[in-house]
Structures are given as structure tokens and as C-alpha cells.
Amino acid sequence: MPDAPKPQLTAEQDAYLRERSDLMGAWLVLHAWGVIALAMALFVRWPNPLTFIVAMVLIGGRQLGLAILMHDAAHRALFKNTRLNDTLGAFLCGWPVGASLTLYRPYHLSHHRHTQQKDDPDLVLSAPFPITRQSFWRKMRRDILGITGVQRRLEFFRYEMGDDPSRWQRCKNLFHAEKYFLLTNLVLFGITAAAGVWWAYFVLWLMPLLTWYQVISRIRNIAEHAVVGDNDDRLRNTRTTLTHWGMRMVVAPYWVNYHLEHHLFVFTPCWKLPAAHRMLIAQGLGPHMELAKGYLQVLRKATAKNTDGPDGHSASQRKSPAMI
């Protein structure tokens, strides 16, 4: 077989994609928090089932957006200034949603070095697919009911507490690991309490984090690497999902759907990924790229397995107990 084509950038294109912006980084962080604040205000001002659903979807989407911006910070692409990048990427993006930039960076860079190979720490997320539709909908029900979110957090707590026999030491370990998550969430609770709506922290922050955030995180993870064309081809072992603005607003904020471009050009800020996509298409690489026309197309492919195993779960799930 002929060698797979390789993307080629001119010096000008490479320089453009590498250039970061403190102003744009600040705008993206402010935008995420601004949408969250407006969605909260919408329900507080007009409390009804419709505004509640809208608020849940918008807030959960921007919570994922904060995690995506922390991901950019992990690549030192959110801000041009390194101190701003690491500080704001951690405290304004990662910690409020329970993610640690310090822990995430080495883990994630290992994923980039070994994408879809045996040493890829994220392989456990894509390996179980395809699964059955029944299995997929079981996962969706757990996500939207908050079961997945609670289970993940409890597993994270157990990991952070460690195996020290001293209960006091284990609690100290947990506090040391979670202190910034607790601090940022205490600030959020304080803001809602000062505004006279203390309940909004639980209903309009924690609830979306435990429900809708889990749903769209699962869909995003499936779309990025599950059932791809060729695990050894850089143009085919990662997927870009082309979709309309409405779907990007609620499922794929901050251009996270351009995941193939991100893997090819890891130094590129998220807001330049559409430009990177156009460069690849202009080179005639479109037919060689793993592209999907929408998330429904991806989910159909990822749920194409016909039967479950005898325990009600697909065989691929039994091989990998990790949840997406």
C-alpha cells in the first residue's frame, strides 16, 4: 500500500497556527463564565420547566467548555503568557469542574504521543466500541440521572485518599488533592448566596455538572477516537465531526469537534482549528481524513454491535470496565 499522505504547512501557515493570544484566551474564559451567569439568571428570573432545561444545557455545555479551555492550557495554547496560561487555566477552568491541570497535562500528552496505540492511556475510552444501542442508552440513563457523575467523583476520592491505614492521613491526602476544587466551589456558593439565591449553586451548578456535563462528555469522547478508520494512520485514528452551530453550542463548545486537526497541530489554540481544517482540505487531504457529518452519524457507527453478552453487557465492555 502507498504511504498515507502527510499534511504540509508553509512557514507562514505554521507561524499563524502557532501564534497564541492573551486577549483571545481571556475572552474565551470570560465567555464561558458569562454564558453560565446568563443561564443562571435566566432561570432565576423566569423559573419554569423550559428555562430550567435551557439553563441545564447551557451551563453543562460551558462546564465542558471550561474543561476544554483547561485542555488548551495543558498544551500551553490558551494564553501566550505562560504564567497566565497555567494559573487561569487551573483556577478558572479546571478546578471549578473538578479537574487538575497539573495532573491532566502529563496524562494527556502521553495520549498524544501514543494515540490509539497500546500505551495510550485513553485507549480504554475507545476500545469497547462498537457497543449495542441498548448498552449505549443504559449509559445515557446513568449519565442524565447523575449516577455516572457521582460514581466518578467517589472513585476519584478513593484514589486521592490512597491506601494509608490512618483515616486522618487519608483525609489529609484528600483535602490536599481537592482543596482548590473546594475553594473555587466555595467561591461560587458565596457568589450565589450573596445574590440571595444560595440554592442556585446546587441546582444550577452541581446538577448540570453531574448530569448534562456527563452526557456530552461521553458523546465527545466517543466521537474523538471510537470506531475510527485506522489506528496507525494519523489522518484516520482521530475524528473531526463536522456539525452546525447549534450542535456545537450545546455539545461541542470551543471548536472541540475539530479533534483531528488538534492532534495534527497540538500547538494550535482551539479558536484556530477551523483554519487548520481549511488548510488540510485545501491540500486535498479531505478524502484521507477521518471525518463525520454530525454526531448522529458517529453514534450510529459506535452503536452498531448487534447483541449483548450473557450478562447484558457487550463483550467489549467486559474487557474494559472503565466508563467513558
TrEMBL record:
Single annotated GO MF: sphingolipid delta-4 desaturase activity
InterPro entries in alphabetical order: FA_desaturase_dom
Annotated keywords: Membrane, Transmembrane, Transmembrane helix
One Gene Ontology CC term in the entry: membrane
Region entry Disordered, spans: 305-324
Residue ranges, compositional bias (Polar residues): 314-324
Pfam families to which the protein is assigned, alphabetical: FA_desaturase
Domain Fatty acid desaturase residue range list: 49-282
Top-level taxonomic group: Bacteria
Transmembrane spans: 23-44, 50-70, 180-213
Gene Ontology terms describing biological process: ceramide biosynthetic process
UniProt name for this protein: Fatty acid desaturase family protein
Native source organism of the sequence: Limnohabitans radicicola
Organism lineage: Bacteria, Pseudomonadati, Pseudomonadota, Betaproteobacteria, Burkholderiales
